[in-house]
Write a structure and sequence with these properties.
single chain, four-stranded mixed sheet, 2 domains, D-Maltodextrin-Binding Protein, domain 2, alpha+beta, five-stranded mixed sheet
Amino acid sequence: MKKMLRRSGAAALAAAVAMSAVPAAAAAGDDRMTITVMGIDWGYGPQQDSEMERAWEDLFDVNLEVEWVNYQDYDQKVNTLIAAGSTPDVIQINKEGNGRYYYPIFTQAIDAGLFVDMTPYLFADGNGIAETNAVMKNWDDSFWEQAKYNGGIYILPRCKAENAQNSGIMVRRDLMKKYGYEEEPTTMDDLKDWLINLSQAATEGEGKKIYGLEFFGDDFMDSHLKAFAVAFTGQTDWNQDENGDYQYIQFNDKYLDFLNWMKDLYAAGALDPEFALNNSDTSNWKSGNAVSYLGTWYNWNQSADLTSNKVFDESTADDLEAWCLMPVEGESAYSVYPNYTDIDSCIAISASCSEEKIAKIMEVFNGTEEAYPGYNLMMTDGVEGIHYTLLEDGTKDTSDEAMKQARQDGYVGAWNQIFLKTDQDQIKDKFMRDGAKRASDESIERVQTIKDFIYSYPAEAGLKQEIQKLQSSTYDTQWGIISDDVNAMCTQYVMGQIGEAEWTAFIQGIKDSADYKAIQEEFKASVQ
């Protein structure tokens, strides 16, 4: 589809982008290369041919035909296109359920030659993009190893994520203060008692049910529980023992101790009694209905006044205060869950692209502030006068309703999942914002202390994801069925419907199964 309107203003990004509408031919002629793209819409409803899209086109002097597909439909749609060999020029690659970017349909297409090995473009005796790009040249070999499949690089990372992201025990500090629970727990046993007792005190005092921990659904390998399971087992999803065998965390004998911990919360009424029914609103932390929530350690970035950046739902009172506990110590480790991969998001390039187009894609999708002054500001805030108003004190006002709509239509702030962005520094970007959205000094100090700990701890404790790059056809076809059955048994155990004997016998049956043994052998062969 040809663009019928252009916004002149590539000069744009050195200061403010000037946005006066002119016909396409007058703005750039018809000689711009067209690049087709498919990316994930995480529920914001971005529009095609938005003002934001046109600003990117003018910056890079290309036509971008971008289709944003809702996250609920994305995997099915993109995998259908991959299987048919008819993908757009550039596609965002989503993680499979277990955290792998290199999943079966994608790797089969790679093996069939349908995607570009970007290694020669990235590394070329010191002159490749990864060796000269202002952002990429800071990525070490271990990070690039995560992007490899059979020695080639078929996914292009968009940034390096923060470490151990899902290790934040976020809590309602206002409840801690109000009911006398300001002494923070330091062990998993302490945390259990603390959650139960504060939940009971808050429920009585607030006149409504306040759960101890937000949890809903029947996936006990959800990221909102894993760090707690690590504390008991001392391992991540898969561990390798001294015999070279791979052990799944839920098959670790100590995983039962974690389930008993959850069972105690359930019995005390600190978990939603109907959590398995996926009642996402009942115990929601952001709605003020739970004491705590295990999530991303940098997502409690509440402003010092508690309202300029609220964190909690708009319907809640303005006195709700967010806080984050330090990781607590369990039987075998601290409650820190290492990332499955440090690649935050990535794209792949169709092998149907010409050499000229591949070169252009590598240029356009790997922009930096150094190459395009103002790039970082546009990435985070959009275009001045359209997506924000620059105030005299240097802060940006986005309160205008038309600007709010333009930001939503343009997907401002989310293009970084397909375009290159600076490596994550969530303390700076979230907690240390200028103006009213800045967090309190106390919160900044706490989040920095948390970051320092979880950046050093996994390596010290030997916590790592052992199968991140291993391949097993049996795993790919059967593991979803096996894990569903295991999670169903977890639910029954926590709810008291089965006991330890039934659990142990069930797990041993899986370990003795032909499928599990085949997975073991295929993982080992994959290493070879």
